[in-house]
Amino acid sequence: MKSTDVLEVYDAEYAADYNDRFLLLPGARSNTDADLALLRQQLGPSARWLDIGCGTGYFLSQFPGVARAGYDLSAAMLARAQAASPDALFFRQGDFRNEVPEWRAQWSLVTCMWSAYSYCETVKEVEQVVANMITWTRPEGAIFIPILDLEELRATPVLYHTDSAGMYPGDFWITGCTWSWNEGDTGKTHHHLIAPQIEHFVRLLAPYFDKVEVVRHPAPAGGNPRRAVLATRRRAAPDFARPAAVTWPAPRPVVPPAATLPLATLLREVAARLRPGYIWRALRNRRAG
């Protein structure tokens, strides 16, 4: 895990503004509200909920009275979480890649909200995080993971699996990508974050649950709709020969690429194509081809 990056970015000043900058921002609020609605459906009277990478504990704080706990690497974020949920079972500082034996089969709901898994070094480490979440979930329990992948980041779907990779026979998976973000207003930089494919999360969870559902939240203003994976009815033992039934949201309508571009961008493109010599070169290249 990029532990140094996490501690450098998520300091006390960053923690103080985190909810307003990300969870409660008008453009992102629809995602936050959709997450809360889904969590509410999973939290019955006997619920025991563990949120790993809990950050400021905003989601935990919205359910007072529920037996809940948080786990995070940043002490500054945990201090905020503790203050927001004084009735929580506990908040613990630590690395969610590590096994915690006393949590085995102890939680009816285990979540990883807002892509905390992105700070793992590799997809293999993300797989370990998911394996821990499964281990910590009790029979009949559930796992909920909102996903940040290439489709949300850049509206670019990528083929996950094929049974042939060109001239090389055999199965081929594109399990994820990496991305970096330099925040213009804070100067903080998130280096080479991991974004596994949503299909990879489904594949990891399916043998351990009776049902896996991919949900799509409403699209925020100016953004792409976020997706999440909800795995329910944890099995007593995995069944790789009979994985969970998986449901996917209905496909979104196909929008012509030009229709998604701002008017100023379209005008710049038209002007560039009308510049002297462009049309002549294009016609000449077309005849040559």
From TrEMBL:
Signal peptide residue numbers: none
GO molecular function: methyltransferase activity
Keywords: Methyltransferase, Transferase
InterPro entries: Methyltransf_25, SAM-dependent_MTases_sf
Domain Methyltransferase: from-to ranges: 50-141
Gene Ontology terms describing biological process: methylation
Record-linked Pfam families: Methyltransf_25 (PF13649)
PANTHER family (alphabetical): TRANS-ACONITATE 2-METHYLTRANSFERASE, TRANS-ACONITATE 2-METHYLTRANSFERASE-RELATED
Protein's name in the database: Methyltransferase domain-containing protein
Species per Swiss-Prot/TrEMBL record: Hymenobacter rubripertinctus
